[in-house]
UniProtKB/TrEMBL annotation:
Belongs to the TenA family. SUPFAM superfamilies: Heme oxygenase-like. Homotetramer. Its EC number is 3.5.99.2. One of its GO terms (molecular function) is thiaminase activity. InterPro entries: Haem_Oase-like_multi-hlx, Thiaminase-2/PQQC, Thiaminase_II, Thiamine_Salvage_TenA. It comes from Paenibacillus xylanivorans. Residues 14-217 form the Thiaminase-2/PQQC domain. It is an enzyme of class 3 (hydrolase). This is Aminopyrimidine aminohydrolase.
Length: 223
């Protein structure tokens, strides 16, 4: 198995804790309190703005135009497709964009995006891919598993669009290049450097788990 593909197994405990979080299963069976989802949606919107900036950092640090294009294509998809999913749900809740723009990121949300930005500023392209990889990979993995596990109750579920969006082939294909690109960038790295990449990846998986938990508890600050 290539280095990039082993990263999930190296974070498997927290990866599975993420999948087992009640937030996800209540989305799967449609019972998640819509106020909880609304909290998530608004926090995630502010998260995605910061997340999109990390792809811009990747484009700045990319060594060639192919890689620059890969980063900017995803950045565009986040801003115009993924955030459309959020804007559509916000519409259903009657939340306007102006109202949405007054939302402040929670303490934890800020910690997560600050960590991503710090890695992007201090690291190279391999570190940038490592820090964003779990954001795409966990969402695809969790959504495909939810789609399968709750296939009998998906139709008409309020969260069906969310699940099908992240379980889609288009979403998977958008980040497929992360694997080979990270492997190529890591080919000549020392053991110590590879461990640092693993730590960056695992930290983001942990942040992903805690983002579900923060949203489930509607936790804006440490209290
Ligand atoms: C917190 C978080 N992580 C990842 C994703 C998927 N791009 C997301 N929308 N939000």
């Amino acid at each position: 198995m290539s280095f990039s593909r082993t990263l999930k197994d190296k974070s498997i405990t927290v990866w599975e804790d993420g999948y087992n979080h009640p937030f996800l299963h209540e989305m799967g069976n449609g019972t998640l309190d819509q106020e909880v989802f609304k909290f998530y949606l608004l926090q995630d919107y502010t998260y995605l703005i910061e997340y999109a900036k990390i792809f811009a950092m990747g484009a700045v640090k990319a060594a060639d135009e192919k890689l620059m294009t890969n980063f900017t294509v995803i950045q565009h998809a986040i801003l115009y497709e993924e955030m459309d999913l959020h804007r559509n749900y916000m519409n259903e809740f009657g939340i306007t964009l102006d109202e949405n723009h007054t939302v402040k990121p929670s303490l934890f949300n800020k910690a997560y995006t600050s960590n991503m930005m710090s890695v992007a500023q201090t690291g190279g392209v391999a570190e940038i891919i490592a820090v964003i990889f779990p954001c795409a990979w966990t969402y695809y993995d969790y959504a495909t598993r939810l789609k399968e596990q709750y296939r009998d109750s998906l139709e008409g579920n309020f969260y069906q669009t969310w699940i099908e969006n992240y379980a889609s082939d288009e979403f998977r294909d958008s980040f497929e290049w992360f694997y080979d690109t990270l492997d190529a960038l890591c080919e000549h790295k020392t053991e110590q450097e590879l461990e640092a990449i693993e730590d960056i990846f695992r930290r983001s998986v942990e942040f992903e788990y805690l983002f579900w938990d923060m949203a489930y508890n509607r936790q804006l600050s440490y209290l």
